[in-house]
Structures are given as structure tokens and as C-alpha cells.
Predict the structure.
Amino acid sequence: MNNNPCLRLAAILLACLSAAACSTSPSRAPTKEAAMIEPQRETEHRGSDDLLTAGLGLAGLRGMTPPGFADAAAPTAEELRRRSIWNNWRGIADLSLTGGYGEVYGSVAHVPGREFSAFATVPGAKQPHRVLLQVPDSFDTGKRCVVVTASSGSRGIYGSIAVAGAWGLPKGCAVAYTDKGAGTDYYDIDTHTGVKLDGTRGELGETLAFVPEVPVGMSGVAFKHALSGDNPEADWGRHVKQAAEFALSALDRAFPQAKPFTFENTRVIAVGISNGGGAVLRAAELDGDWLDAVVAGEPNVFLPAPGSRTLYDYTTEAALLMPCALLHLPVDSLPQPPLRAQAEPLWTTRCSALKSAGLVSGDDAAAQVNSAYDQLRAKGWTDRSLIAGALSVGFDLWRAVAVTYASAYARAGIGEHPCGYSFAAQNPDFSPREATAAERSAWFADGSGIPPGAGVGIIDTQLAPPDFTLPGLQCLRGLLDAGGTTAFGKGLAATTAALPQKDLPMVVIHGLDDGLVPPAFSSAPYVAASKAAGREISYWQVKHAQHFDGFLALPAYGARYVPLLPYVYAALDQVSAQLDGKGKLPADAVIESTPRGAGAVEAEQFAIPAQP
């Protein structure tokens, strides 16, 4: 497997009448035990281990080779945790030598402490989500603080460690995590094995993180975001709140002499980026005086307002049209990868196939390119977002996202994807095969929560020349046209956000070059609607920032873009100071950052607004 952090991210950054009656696995209907949020596992991390980097430190996190397993087919819980933390750091932060992490901004301090973990289930859900609390030894029971977070993308439980953990743990705050009903607890249908609480593989009859219904005769791999039957995105806010509730419960156990820990006596700040940013905004709308502040970076959020679009809408649009539209842009405008010389023949084929499908106009290639480009610009895409979006085209990320979310919105089970997709380990010719023991054992640590990646690929039954993936993409796009009365339509509607609660300090941060979650479709309309309703919300728009800090390790990306994490940390500093009475909520700002070019990152390049 290629261990380049950016490619690992891109590999993100992709027959019975009654299935229940014929299932070979037990139902995971919520039970009192499944819904409990009392800590079920407690571990200590001191000495050569720690909470923030699993003892790897900055040098270890930068290492190109992942932490190894003594036995590849049966890694220990400790080995899996260390490798998961390594992968999640590298997928989220720019750890390159010139990127400045841990030196100019951010922290990889050695933080000893304890972890408390459990499975928790929101009311009405079929499957649990993971919750985890990290409690540093420096936690002060006299100044109680919890940072609650949700993983970005579909990542596993450590998916936000470089966001929330890096800020909260060195400050002595406990940090509560949720995988928000997605994550890397892959279930192997062929062997009927899943993932236990400690990350190791387990069999039916043991307590597993995810046990789907498996119709007779099925094979391959199931993962929770697509196949839980729960449409987890609709519950993202509740996942975050339940993680905060778990934190209080775990702190009671950690410090019995100081309990009870309550929302009244414990400061709770929510933070997340991307899908995690959307999750904390969804948490902000929930009733109850339980949150003290919210910081959301590059959030995937849809609140009905002028300009707002669902992720699924613009993702399927981009998957279809963007490969062709990118040919309109000057060759030297696109960072590499993708390599233009390799991509251009495929993109030209897409233009011709779109013409045949009636999706673009024009009798020659140039006219077809212009048609695709004009359609995207008319729908709100900027040249900046198209340029940064080229990376998602090159790594087929748009299709990966659309395939997973279509299944989730339809609450599809195994074998029920509305466009016929499934998931399995693959041969070189992309045909499905059974996963190896070593692949299965590494899924918890190496997976991104959404195939392809970690040896699991997308099985597309509609592949056909000349543009092999186009028929499936047309089916995915067509789900939007089927109407809101379908299972898919109802599921998509259930992910709609509402306004945040009043008098809740909030900061939303977004890069103006974001090509995966363009601010014009997400944060900008959300903030505008919230401000119009009198909510206490600030908006930082960062010039020269795109979606993936992890890709800044590639020279072409590091030279032209700034990381977003410094702004998230700064916003957390400023809302924390405001809560302490030492300043006001940050002011709105369009931030004039400066890319580092061929040099190394310096703090002055970020131009972070001062505390009011």
C-alpha cells in the first residue's frame, strides 16, 4: 500500500424475500445495554505512550512508514490505536518539514492521561456510534473544561484528534470524540467478523461496533456510514451531544471525589471541520443550555437559504461535469496531482460522453468544454473552487462520496443500494474478491470510513465503455429527480439543518478556495441566515485556503495554499478568552493570508485577526 499521506487520504481524499427473515446475523435493535454511555473501557497512556500522538511525537507522525504490527493478521489493540492516530494526524494536518506544524502553530505535546471509550446509541438508531473521552493528567477539577468534537469526513474515532485534541489536551481540557455513526468499524460479510471496542477483530456473539443484517448469499464488505440503515447524517447533532453526555459520565468515573460533572459546572466547547464542522453546527441547534461555544471549520451544512445546496447536489454535479469543465482552465492554473497530461484524455472522453447523454451541448470538444464550464459557473462554482476541486476529480472522490451518501440517505441495507453499488476487496481488474486476514485486521486503523481505501473498493455493476463510470454517476444524479417521497428523498431532507440556539457564541471559518465544500453553498448562506435571525455568529473567510490541509505536503499545493487549522485554533483561543471575560467574540473578517510559495511557513503569513 502506498504510504504517502496525501494519496492515503485521497484514496479517500474513494436471495430472500425478506432480508431480516433470512439474515445470518442478529439484529442490532437498540437495547438498554447498547444505548448506555457509561464507560465500558478505560486505558492509561503514559511513559512511552500518550493521548495526543500515541508516543510518536512529531518525528514519528512525520515518518513515511506507518507504525507496524508484530503480527499483521492479529495486531494488538495498542498497535491499532497507535496506527490509527498516525493515520488520522497525517490525513488532517500538514506535517511536512516546511509546513510549520508543531513549530509555528499547533501542538504535538506529550500529554499523559487516560482514555474512556464506549458504544452509544441515539434513540431510534439501529447501530451505535463510538464515543471516546481523553482525560489528560493535567485536568483541573476546579476549572472543568470539555472540548467535544466529531470526526471529519467519515473517519474513525480519532478522526478529529488533530483538530480538537491538539488544542484541548495541552490546555488540560478533556476531549470527547464521536465518529458520528460512520467510522472504520468495517464488517466482513464473508467471515462474519467485525470490530470490537478495542479495535481488534471479533466474531458474531461478541460485542461489535457494527453488525448489519446480511441476506443469504451476499459477500463483500459493509461499512457503517453507507449500510447502517440509520442515515447517520440526520443525527450528527445528537451524536455530538451524546458524546458530551458521555464525557460527563466518564469524568464522574475518572474523578469520583469531584462528581457530579454537569453541563452547569463544566464548560463545553464544540469544534469540528468539514463533516465534523457540520456536526457541531447541527449540535448548536439542539435545545438545552449545554453548549458554551461552537467553532466550525469548512462545514458541510445545508440550511434552506439563498445559495445553499446539499452536499449530494453539488457532489453529483461535480462528479458528472467537472472533469470536462476543467479543460476550460489554463494548464498552469491546476496544481498537480492530478497530472494534466494523464488526466486530459479521460476528461476529453467525459466531454464526448456527456454530449451523447445530452448533458452538454456543442459539436466539438471546445464547445462541450465551454458548456460544462458554463453550467458549473451558473450554479455558483468559482474558478477558485474548480481549481481546488481538480484534486477530487483526479482521485475520484466525488463518486466515492456520492455512492456512500446515496446508500445512507436511502437507508439501504446490504444488496439494496439504489444504484446497485456494493463494496469489497478487489483484484487488479477491479473484480471483487475475499479480503485477506491482514487487510481485515488493519481496517480499523487504516480505513477512512469511505471506500475506496484500505483494500476496500467500490463495485460498480453499471460499468460500460467508453466512459466507464458515467452510467452509475447518471443514476446517482437521477436520485435527486425522483422526488422527496422516495426513501432517498426523505433521507436527504432529514439532513437539513436549523438555526442555532440564541446567545450561543459561534465562529465559522472557511477557505475561499475550498473545492470540496464551497463556502457559497454551505457556510455563507448558513451564516447569513443565522445573522438575519439575530444569532451570535462570526465568520472568517480565509483567502488562499482550500479543504485539505493534509495535501499541503505536496509542493504544488503547499506553495499556493495556506492551512486552515491555524484559524480553527485561533478561533478556539478567542472564544475561550471571551468565555473567560477577556475579550469579545471575534469580528467578521475576510483574511488576507499569504501562501508560503517555495519557502517555509511563517506565522505572519496567516494574518490571523486579533482578539477584539
